[in-house]
Write a structure and sequence with these properties.
Blueprint: E1 3-4, E2 10-11, E3 13-17, H1 21-32, E4 36-41, E5 53-55, E6 58-60, E7 67-68, H2 72-75, H3 79-82, E8 85-89, E9 92-97, E10 103-105, E11 112-113, H4 123-127, H5 132-136, H6 141-154, E12 175-176, H7 180-189, H8 191-196, H9 201-204, E13 210-214, H10 218-231, E14 235-238, E15 243-247, E16 250-255, E17 258-260, E18 264-267, H11 272-277, E19 288-298, E20 307-313, E21 318-326, E22 329-336, H12 343-358, E23 362-373, H13 379-394, E24 399-400, H14 409-423
Parallel strand pairs: 3-4, 3-18, 4-14, 9-20, 11-12, 18-24
Antiparallel strand pairs: 1-2, 5-6, 7-13, 8-13, 9-10, 15-16, 16-17, 19-22, 19-23, 20-21, 21-22
Helix pairs in contact: 1-10, 1-14
Length: 429
């Protein structure tokens, strides 16, 4: 509902649903565009999946959650937030043990194989990739099946997961090392090979982008972000789950029996209720259950800057190890599947993986938290998202979706802001 200020001039209203970093960044952008903004978050505090794990007065990052400083939305953050971030070279590696012998690589984050790129898919096969299984079968047979085995080990069914999920689990491009010049030639000559095969940044002659992390954890960061939003005029409603509704040609919200009529709605939260309310059925919403374990790590070879290692092994429950400096030492956050092993066994196992990157280390886990990760969508879900977006361009122009297919933060925020700017001329003045 359009509001009027003290001078009698009209101000358009916006509701942002979801108080993670995507919702907070969107709410701030909307204030710059002149909207009176209300931010709704179902949980008691802002931050979403970025909120830190805490134990005995200490905090730990809840997974590997870099911010990318080169992104426009990051550059637009106010100085009070920028001052709460420290910057470093974006640095990662991969540990792959999928039947070709264990490989540790310090400059590539997807699976690495000591195998030639023989038997790649032809363009016609590539074009009909619907599922993630279809995409993995575009690689040489033994490699594709090895990665599919790891996906099943993760608890996912690659046959029913959309091919667009490859980047959500760092499977966008695989590195078949040993013939870098051959791979370069293949990538240059074939769009299919270019999309499927990767090369480390050092081989490509590229520098490392700059990442950032909060100096005092994400909980403190979002405390500062909340104050900034309030100073910008955003009304923050935590502990306030809202329900979407679509009536005639307008999107509205329901809150505890009250109907809300904002001029614009941005849904930066779980899309399930939106898709259902639009009459498009129930999302398949494939998910994986993991545990996040965090604590301290020590050893003489640990990196000065944050570093993470993606783990691809059907013999390991671990999927990612994130090491970061703090208070003169180092902390570690481990993402892994709950396979019932004891804490000492888990620590010893992670130490063994770390040895190939950092030498001998010692890990002491302080806190563990089970989580459900909604990182996948099915081909049918993609069709539902597309159908809903079509409705929003023709009927519900006051509704902007949360770029739900993008698990990565930057493309999600960038697409929301792009859609938002394109939609503004269609809104009532």
């Amino acid at each position: 509902m359009t509001m009027r200020d003290d001078t009698g001039q009209s101000t358009r209203t916006a509701a942002v649903v979801g108080g993670g970093i995507t919702g907070c960044a969107t709410a701030l952008e909307l204030t710059r565009l002149g909207f009176q903004v209300t931010l709704y978050e179902a949980k008691p505090l802002l931050g979403g999946i970025l909120r830190d794990l805490e134990s005995d007065g200490c905090w730990y990052f809840n997974g590997c959650q870099y911010l990318r400083t080169e992104q426009a939305w990051h550059k637009a953050l106010p100085d009070a937030l920028q001052d709460n971030l420290y910057r470093f070279d974006h640095y990662y590696g991969a540990y792959t043990d999928l039947g070709f012998g264990p490989v540790s690589h310090e400059d590539f984050e997807a699976p690495v194989f000591d195998a030639p790129p023989d038997g790649m898919a032809d363009p016609d096969t590539y074009r009909v990739c619907a599922s993630l299984a279809d995409r993995m079968r575009c690689y040489p047979s033994a490699i594709g099946e090895a990665v599919l085995g790891w996906l099943r080990h993760l608890g996912a069914d690659p046959e029913v997961i959309d091919a667009g999920n490859a980047y959500n689990v760092q499977l966008g491009r695989l590195y078949l090392r040993g013939g870098d010049k051959e791979i370069e030639a293949l990538k240059t000559g074939s769009p299919v090979a270019d999309d499927l095969l990767g090369l480390p940044r050092t081989v490509r002659g590229e520098g490392r982008p700059i990442g950032s992390l909060p100096l005092n954890g994400y909980n403190a960061f979002f405390g500062v972000f909340e104050n900034i939003l309030i100073e910008a005029g955003v009304a923050i409603r935590t502990g306030q789950p809202v329900v979407p509704r679509f009536e005639d040609d307008t999107a509205i919200l329901r809150l505890r029996g009250e109907t809300l009529w904002p001029d614009l709605i941005v849904w930066a939260a779980n899309p399930t209720p939106v898709i259902a309310a639009a009459g498009l059925g129930r999302l398949d919403d494939p998910f994986v259950d993991i545990t996040v374990s965090a604590g301290c790590i020590s050893g003489p070879g640990l990196p000065a800057d944050p570093h993470y290692v993606q783990v691809y092994s059907t013999d390991s429950p671990v999927t990612r190890i994130f090491i970061y400096p703090r208070d003169g030492g180092h902390c570690v956050t481990v993402e892994h599947m709950p396979d019932g092993r004891s804490l000492p066994d888990l620590q010893a196992h992670v130490q063994e993986i770390c040895r190939s990157f950092y030498g001998d280390v010692r890990i002491e886990i302080a806190v563990q938290q089970p989580q459900r990760r909604h990182i996948f969508f099915s081909p049918a879900d993609r069709a539902r998202f597309d159908a809903f977006r079509e409705l929003c361009t023709t009927r519900y122009v006051n509704f902007v979706d949360g770029a739900w297919e993008s698990y990565a933060r930057d493309p999600k925020i960038n697409r929301i802001i792009s859609t938002l700017r394109a939609r503004l001329p269609l809104l009532p003045s």
